[in-house]
Amino acid sequence: MRRKKIRVIAWGGLGDILLSTPAFKALKQKHPGCRIIVYCPTKGHREIFRNNPDIDAIRSTSFFANPVAFTMYYFKWAKFHTFLYGHLSPSLYYRKSAKEIIADMFDVTLEDKNIRVFLTPEEERKAREYMSGFKNPVVLHITSRCSKNQEWPFNNWDKLIRSMPEYTFIQLGLKDELKVKQAVDLRGTTFREALAFIKHARGFVGVNSSFSHATNAFGIPGVVLFGPSQPEVWGHPNNINLYKPVRCAPCLDILLDSDCPYDKRCMHNITVEEVRAALLRQLEKDHIPA
Q1: Which of 83, 92, 216, 243 could form a disulfide with 226 if both were Cys (CB 3.0 to 4.6 A apart)?
Q2: Domain-wise residue ranges, the chain
Q3: Which of the 8 DSSP states describes residue 262?
């Protein structure tokens, strides 16, 4: 008997891809004999799924790489699943995790809600050796590619670092993101390298982003700053999620790419002292990478 094939197109940002990983585990548990094939439009998507035992094949969405699958999708000759949940305006209409929303789209229930990332022993070794050269390394990510309205006042990051001299802050992100003067600069590393650095850090602090989601894969204690989006949907239990909404929040699915007309008041409401206190509380925990 031929194995049932479940074809999935992985649209969305890197954070959405990370958030989808618990659903693939549940999908495999519900259909243990199935063959799950995931079609990815970018290298970053494929990097997240690499080595994932819940996925049988990772392929490109390109016509030239997969003309048969592309034609099947175009002419609707086979069923292709997607988990694009953004059109549901989750910040407005949901009070449950994005991971559960995605699971609902696959018609599965999550027994394990943790994000799943599988690093190689060599990736682990390199990250562990690099991070061992720093005193109390804390990973920092200050930019939201989803919405600039989710970003904290830039000068606050240096103030936070100066207030915690016993820790080394290591900044991850893309090269075009603003550099925090007091942080060690690791912007521009590959996404999988960044994931490995997160796993072998003492902790994490940053805004709601793909890297804040990645902490959940490794149980890293973190502090995540929320404003236009809310932790009920995009937060994780391993983090302290700081959220001080104003009357207009959450507005992520209203403003979209538009600038906040109120100067991101919800993000300004979160003080350096509050972030420092929360981060110290998290760093008191003993974290041993799995």
Answers
A1: 243
A2: 5-105, 121-283
A3: T
Q: Which CATH architecture has domain 121-283?
A: 3-Layer(aba) Sandwich (3.40)
Q: Does residue 262 have a pLDDT over 80?
A: yes
pLDDT at 287: 65
User: Is the Cβ–Cβ distance between 37 and 57 less than 8 Å?
Assistant: yes
d(CA 219, CA 26): 20
pLDDT score, position 285: 79
User: What does the pLDDT average to over 154-178?
Assistant: 97
In one-letter notation, the amino acid at residue 8 is V
d(CA 238, CA 231): 12
**d(Cα 78, Cα 75) in Å, to the nearest integer?**
8
The C-alpha atoms of residue 188 and residue 173 are separated, in whole angstroms, by 6
Q: What is the Cα 221 distance to its own chain's centre?
A: 14
H-helix or E-strand spanning residue 36: strand 35-40
Sequence-distant (6+) residues with CB within 8 A of 253 are 86, 89, 90, 91, 92
Say whether pLDDT at 194 is over 90: yes
